[in-house]
Input
Amino acid sequence: MKAPPRLQSLVEEGLIDTVVRQLMSGKEAMVFVVRAGEQTLCAKIYKEANNRSFRQAVDYTENRKVKNSRSARAMAKGSKFGRQEQEAAWQSAEVDALYRLAAAGVRVPQPINFHDGVLLMELVTDANGDAAPRLNDVAFTEAQALRHHATLVAEVVRMVCAGVVHGDLSEFNILLANADGVDFPVIIDLPQAVDAAGNNHAQRMLMRDVANLRDFFGQFAPALLTTDYGPEIWSLYQGGLLSNETVLTGHYERAHADVDMAGVLREIDDARAEDAARRLRMATAG
Output
């Protein structure tokens, strides 16, 4: 197919040779399958801010570090240059997170290059070498659901130990890859990833990420619906006791304390908004 304008510069730079097809168009980006020599890769083109439907972006960008002090001042003032720099920081956040998590051993697509607002990365494939499906497009047996849920909880722990919370983890941004006949999940879509220690919303986002995993796999393995891994993970992390080797129980004994009603109401509002967003994604995917 003809290369879209945003990919043409990569062709001219010799970073890719041809555009094979569009793979998907999501809330924050369009993804294409491209060829570079003998390699088949993914090219992710980030949408401009005014075309992006990702909600509550301020929660995700809170306390993100910008090395250039001029850029930081401009972003704080909200000037045109500041908005441009904020957009660049938003786009580069996924690249930074991918390299950081890949180094920590988390199963994410291997980043290849980032050029002119386009991220080149590994194409995650299924047993036939085709683009791997998202979890929401796959049905599981109870045993498979338990296995993949355990794998992903361990991946969440590995991410937190690397200082990262995904922030939007669900069945819609996890692929089911296959290598040597074995299926395994690969986590994608990380521009909204936040610093576990430096973002005031990190705890709430982690809870939601883990709850999404529980609710999805709980459809196939109902025993998972009674688990409570999110608070357990966060409590261990805050106490400096969380590691990649930590054995989790899936249960958490909450301390008796005064109820934070404002926090409860925020959680309810977030849950409603997340449910509405999920229904919209399902309708779009259908």
Notes: The chain has one domain: 5-285. Residues 51-56, 71-76 have pLDDT under 50 and may be disordered. DSSP finds eight helices and nine strands in the chain. The CA atoms of residues 41 and 123 lie 5 Å apart.
